[in-house]
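debug: dumping io for the single-chain case to check the tokenizer round-trip. Nothing else runs in this session.
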Amino acid sequence: MLMFLHLEKKNVPHGLENNTNKIYVDAYHELALYLRSLFTFYNSKVERILSDNFDWPWAKFIEFANKSDEYSEINIVTYNYDIWLERILLELEIPFSVPGLKGGDVDGAKINIYKPHGSISFYHKTQQESDYNIPYGRDIFPDASTNHFNLNHNIVLSRCLVNAMIPPAGDSTRMANTWSGQTSQNVILEAGELTANDELMICGISYWHVDRAELDNILVNVDPLVNVYMFNPNPNKSLNAVLTSMFSNYVYHTSSFSLKGRYE
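debug: decoded output
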């Protein structure tokens, strides 16, 4: 049911609506900077991720796939701000690229990482070490393209004059002409290149309302004959229904331990 209710117009003090909008804009800036500082801080607390005798199936599988002639290219799309994935690859000495960013393209790398919602490793060309400061008054969506950012995995606590992170409910579709839009477009192009001989693996996707439109836009560009696998002990019912209806070769796994059959 839709209900349209017309209310009697009330006299609103001049400027009150703008002040209300300003509260939300300021809160957006506060959240974005807080998230960056939080993830940067926790990243600094972990010196090493993998143990010497690690047995994490995803790391083992990626290590195998990178060496195997069976896979010619591996494109990973993640909406996480952290750099655990990148650090794991560095620890395993697996080369990877983050296309578009300065220092992100690595010759001969089979693995490409795309982060449409940004990362603590995206350093703007104006970035510098400084005191904690919230950039009130700046545009929420600054006019910055991917080549305005350097890739830096040696994270230091720093102020971002241009913060390359989109908070939850940040509506990244409004950033079509910025680094996020460029990255999202590259992801869609990569999705469209998949054929019936290729694989699409899904892990850790919430399919929450803030990401649903983006994920749907990717899925509709994938060949329906692609081999699709989802790994999740508690899958989102809506996402499971979407994948079941769209892809005839869809397989669901409750655990990543099923990957062991691929590399053992």
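debug: round-trip ok. Helices lie at 16-44, 57-67, 84-91, 179-192, 209-219, 237-246, 260-263.
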